[in-house]
């Protein structure tokens, strides 16, 4: 009979631990952050047509193994677009390597002309890509 009580109490203790460990708290996002990532290289065509997607492969650096692509932030002024790559860091335990990741940036122009894409490398330095649209 004591063996049954032990098994039952162990089972209930296990269930309680499972419920408590699955409880989400406001601290669950403490291992999630976003940071501007330096662009190291941009590859792709430098000519295209009006209303045609031009895919550019953008390489950017991350500070540790948890880094991955998060999003683009961009502002346009006439024929110049400034693009910031925002890296997403998800995870509390990360490898200490500093990987170079890649993502695709899609550019589409609605008017013919020469366009300048300025990808942020450091606070005031840009990697500029020129695209001629016909």
Notable characteristics:
six-stranded mixed beta sheet, mainly beta, 1 helix, 15% helix, Immunoglobulin-like, 134 residues
What this model shows, in words?
The chain has 134 residues and is mainly beta. The protein has one domain: Sandwich (Immunoglobulin-like). Helix content is 15%, strand content 50%. The protein is built from one helix and nine strands; from the N terminus they run H-E-E-E-E-E-E-E-E-E. The strands form two sheets. Strands 1, 3, 5, 6, 8 and 9 form a six-stranded mixed beta sheet that branches. It has a three-stranded antiparallel beta sheet with strand order 2-4-7, with no helix packed on it. The protein is elongated, with a radius of gyration of 24 Å. The N and C termini lie far apart (86 Å).
Write the layout of secondary structure elements.
Layout: H1 2-21, E1 32-37, E2 39-43, E3 47-48, E4 54-61, E5 67-77, E6 80-90, E7 100-107, E8 113-120, E9 126-133
Parallel strand pairs: 3-9, 6-8
Antiparallel strand pairs: 1-6, 2-4, 4-7, 5-6, 8-9
The total number of structural domains is: 1
Low-confidence stretches: 10-26
Radius of gyration: 24 Å
Distance between the termini: 86 Å
Q: What is the 3D shape?
A: elongated
In the CATH hierarchy, what is the class? Mainly Beta
CATH topology: Immunoglobulin-like
Please report the total strand number as a whole number: 9
Element-level helix/strand string? HEEEEEEEEE
Strand content: over 45%
Computed structural class:
mainly beta
Number of helices: 1
Average pLDDT confidence is 86
Q: What oligomeric state do these chains adopt?
A: single chain
- The appropriate CATH architecture is Sandwich
């Amino acid at each position: 009979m004591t063996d049954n009580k032990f098994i039952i109490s162990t089972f209930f203790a296990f269930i309680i631990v499972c419920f408590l460990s699955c409880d989400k708290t406001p601290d669950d996002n403490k291992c999630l952050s976003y940071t501007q990532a330096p662009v190291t290289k941009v590859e792709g065509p430098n000519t295209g047509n009006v209303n045609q997607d031009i895919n550019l492969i953008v390489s950017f650096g991350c500070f540790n193994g948890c880094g991955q692509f998060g999003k683009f932030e961009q502002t346009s002024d006439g024929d110049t677009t400034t693009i910031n790559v925002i890296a997403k860091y998800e995870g509390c335990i990360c490898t200490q390597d500093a990987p170079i990741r890649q993502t695709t940036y899609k550019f589409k122009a609605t008017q013919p002309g020469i366009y300048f894409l300025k990808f942020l490398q450091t606070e005031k330095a840009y990697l500029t890509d020129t695209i001629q649209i016909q």
